[in-house]
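Sanity check. The docking grid for S-adenosylmethionine depends on where the pocket ends up, so I'm generating a full predicted complex first rather than guessing from homology. Inputs follow.
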Amino acid sequence: MDLLRHELIEGLTAEQMYISSKFFYDKNGSKLFEWITRLPEYYPTRTEKTIIREYGHQLFAHLNHVDIVELGSGDSTKISLALDAIPKNQRESITYRPIDFSSVTIERSKKILSKRYPELNIEGEAADFTKLKNLPNGQPRIICFFGSTIGNFEPEETQNLLSNISQLMNPGDQLLVGMDMIKDLTTLQRAYNDSQRITEAFNKNILRACNNILGTNFFIPDYDHRAFYNEEKNRIEMHLEARSDQFIKSSYFTGRIMIKKGETIHTENSHKYSFETIEQLAHNSQLSVRNVYNDSQKWFSLVQMVK
Ligand SMILES: C[S@@+](CC[C@H](N)C(=O)[O-])C[C@H]1O[C@@H](n2cnc3c(N)ncnc32)[C@H](O)[C@@H]1O
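Predicted complex below; grid placement will be based on this.
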């Protein structure tokens, strides 16, 4: 059995059932996520973009003969803001390397970006950035990790991921990480419980993705969207709660998985950070924080780390 199916079964048979958030991003899920980023309640995308626009000149305008590697590149709209800050004649010397699970997403952004910046070299890769073994060598690298995607991992996984990236970095490379900050509860909870219920559709779509990969019989209307802030762990958690007892079947496992009424499947964590935890994470990864760029409310940070 392949790794993805194995991972899904492991999650569905765990005491607290879970489906890894990476399964959100099938074709439908990626579209729904792009929709979420434009919702009035969903402040992270808007705020991070404001920061990139405001500090884009300082961060990117001088770049020449570098590789821009983007982890979890998604629709690549944020990198466009960075590329806009670089003069056209310098862009010719730059290679943009988006890395994302989704090959569809990579191809789509490649098409859009090569139309907008015909002089730019683009080398996309459909890969898992948690398993990176090397980075292209030859010119300095600026590694962009936008979208607070880093917040989706458990603290230990985040530490491992940053340490791995750090090991692959050379002196002179830099890492730019978008990190969502701890803030008032109402703003946080509203961002994941929008009035148009797009986040709900995004959350539920993971069951469809699971049915497609594992041939399970999840029936979406049998589950409710739950998103709340876990204050102890400083994170928003998303779950799907069964409305009644469910029996899940698949040809990839024997027997049935029973989900009792009120039980949940944990689908996402979105950790929120303080300046102290950011410093700590960098320090534990043998990186140092050179700069932290913020919006005026300090809701979001773009953290520049170097070796
Ligand atoms: C929260 S979205 C952020 C997209 C974009 N960076 C932004 O800021 O709007 C996360 C993206 O990372 C990708 N992704 C998540 N985990 C990944 C992994 N382990 N390896 C590669 N891509 C991953 C998803 O496919 C998705 O496009």
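Relevant for the grid: The pocket of S-adenosylmethionine is lined by residues 22, 25, 33, 37, 45, 72-74, 78, 100-102, 105, 128-130, 146-147, 149 (CB under 6 Å).
Also worth noting: The first helix runs from residue 3 to 12.
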